[in-house]
Every structure is written in C-alpha cells, then in structure tokens.
C-alpha cells in the first residue's frame, strides 16, 4: 500500500514566495491565474445550478484577477453574470490587470451591489493575504450579503478572514464553499476562519510539488499521514511489558475519577499495563472501581523515586485530579528524565514558576507533553498568550521552543507544536468533546502512545486525532466515560 502523504499548510506569505518562485522558474503566472479562476467558476456552476445570477466581486490584487477570470468563464456559460469591483480598475497591475482587460463583463463599483433572491456571490476581493481590517464599504457589502442569506463561493479564503491566524479582520463573508489553490492556509483550519469557509476545495493549478516542498513551513493538518507509520504494531511476539507500562497519578480520596479516566483511556489506546499511583487516603476509592488497571500506593516523592527506578515503567501522566501545589511540583521534578504527560493541575502547579519546569526538561530529546487549554496556556506562557500579533500556530511554536516540550494547545482547533518547529493543526474534533473529563481521556491516550515508544510529537498528534475520532463515534451528548469504548486506532 502506498502511504498517503501529509499535505503541507502554507501561510499566505509562504504561498506568495512559492508563486514568485514558480514565475522565476519559467512557469506562466497568468496561466496559473486562469486555472485558478476557472476552478472557482466551475465550483460555482457545479454547486449552485439553480442560480439566477452570478455576482462576481473583484478586489484590487491578484485575488481580483482570479475573480475577473471567473467572471469571464461564468458569462461564457450563458448565465447572467455581473461584476462589482473594489478600487480603481486602472490601478491593477501585472496578471490582475491582464485578467481585467480580458474580461468582457463590465464592472460597477462595489458599493452599488444590492443583493437579490437567486444571487450567488463569487468573493474575489482579498483572499488569504489580508492583514488589516476590511474597509468600511467592503464591510457594508458583507453585511448586506449576510442579511439576505446570499450564498458565497470564496476564491482562496472568505474576504475578511486572516489567512495566517484565522481571525476575522473587522468583518468577513461566511462562504458556502471555498476554493483555495495548491495547499490549505492556516486560516482555513484555525477558528473562527474554519467555520466561515464552508466546504473547502484545494485545487491544483499546476505549481510543481518541489516548489511547494521548498516553501513548506513544517505545518500540516493533523492525521494518520503524519504519524501512522509510528503507531505501535502488534505481532505474535507482543506481550504486556513490550506494549509499555504507564503510570497515572491519582489525587486524594475525593478526586480520583480523573485519574481513572486517563488510565482507562490508556488501556484502550494500547498500553500493555497501566498503574494508578495513589496516596493512601485514596486507595480504597480507587480500588473499588478498578479491574484491569493496577494500583500502587505512592504518598510522597521519596516513595516515587524508589519506585521509578523500575526500568519497566515507560511513561507517566500527572495532573488529572491530582491537586495544585508543592507535591505536584516535587513529583514532576522527580520525573524530569522520564517521559511525562503533564496536564491540568500539574500545569497549574507551575504557574508561579514556569522556568522551574522548563529548566527541568531542557536536556535531551523532548520527552514532556504539555496539554494546556487557553487558561492554562496563559498561566505558563503569559507573555505569549497576550501577544496579539501572534496566531495560535505561532503561539504554540514559541511555547514549545521555550519549554523544550511538545505542546498540545487545546481547543476546538487544537494545535500541536514541537520544539523543533513542527506543527499539526487538528480539525476532526466535534464540539461535543467539550465536556468534563474529556481532557483526562486525551492525557491518557497521549500517555499510552508515549509508553509504547512513540516520539513525543507523534504521540501527542496521534492522541489528539484519536481523541477526536472517539468523540465522533460517541456522538452528541457524550460524557467522558462514553469516550473510552469509542477509542480505536487507525488500521
């Protein structure tokens, strides 16, 4: 079987550099624009055959050039096509100017457009390269189109969405369908941009793969193509210790459920053995609910150090229900040379001294996975969290480099980043995963993959994707307990 290759995600700046490299290599840049415009026109005709009128909105740059090509193709199909432009058409340059000259559809100012029933809008105003709020006349048209529920087909990216961060720049179209070219951009996958793209089509306009690879920024959409070949495999020689022994730390007697969720998820994700390490006060509460998961008393850091000398202990999960404070910090520092998933209370325990954590894991290959949600991320990386110029990808990257750890920056658009700059953007998580205990399950899956020998980045990325698939399987109304039987690994 041929392995499916992960498609790189290029920022608008990187894509612009690829476009320039293509032109310098002798590729006809206008030919690329024509193919892009034709792809947009074809998508509009295919998806909206009942349209009474196509309304093409052309901007002042190359995205506008795509729009002029699309307008010519749509008019040639025999359906009424009108064109509205933003900015002076005589100010267009290069390929966009040529596309304007080749377009037989007369243009009217953007401000004159009044939506009506039966319209389908072709949005070719700005595309992915916009980095400032949309001008007021554009915002007004976006509002009118939205108020009238006119369908929108976006060329490259709905205008008003930042292609680098997915943020809305003042106002943005909500597209029914988006056609982008060669590769997705971060704004297609990060929220809220992802929610405004409708269905996403990535069209190959003919730029050679070698140029895309040369411009790649180590960003990919998360999925088995990234890590599937590193998933642990079972064979006739497999036995429980070969499949890894994971330790999950439990909190006190009134806070034991989170650790059991993590432990149960780890077993489902393939760990050969899972032990809950608990203080004496919570042994009885844990024992009453455990079957396949083992239980060991660990009250203090001295007992922990004595136990972790056992080389068969492969990885650890600390944080779910553990409690915030000095004990958590001491346990984590004792595990500085071991493979560790640090979650929830474990993260918060270092809010006042994040460098203590980062320094402890600074040596060797990255063997720490951090799983912060927005609030926990801000506690560990307060300056990065408030840096408005950074998008989620950049924030996760900076955090991973600082911590020398793999960071799972959680959310509906979870981003996984490694200290070496690799990034995966996750898109398969359903909204009903946002429920109590869901993060404990994710930590357990990540711990299971670490325990089975996967490198930290791949273990984290695989865990996030498997967690998302479990949510899809369990369905709307799920509880964290429902996720456990829904956990399965890609074949």
UniProtKB/TrEMBL annotation:
Any one GO biological process: metabolite repair
Pfam families: Carb_kinase (PF01256), YjeF_N (PF03853)
UniProt keyword Metal-binding present: yes
YjeF N-terminal domain ranges (all copies): 15-213
NCBIfam families (alphabetical): yjeF_cterm (TIGR00196), yjeF_nterm (TIGR00197)
Biological role stated in the UniProt entry: Catalyzes the epimerization of the S- and R-forms of NAD(P)HX, a damaged form of NAD(P)H that is a result of enzymatic or heat-dependent hydration. This is a prerequisite for the S-specific NAD(P)H-hydrate dehydratase to allow the repair of both epimers of NAD(P)HX.
Protein name per the record: Bifunctional NAD(P)H-hydrate repair enzyme
Origin species: Ectorhizobium quercum
Gene coding for it: nnrD
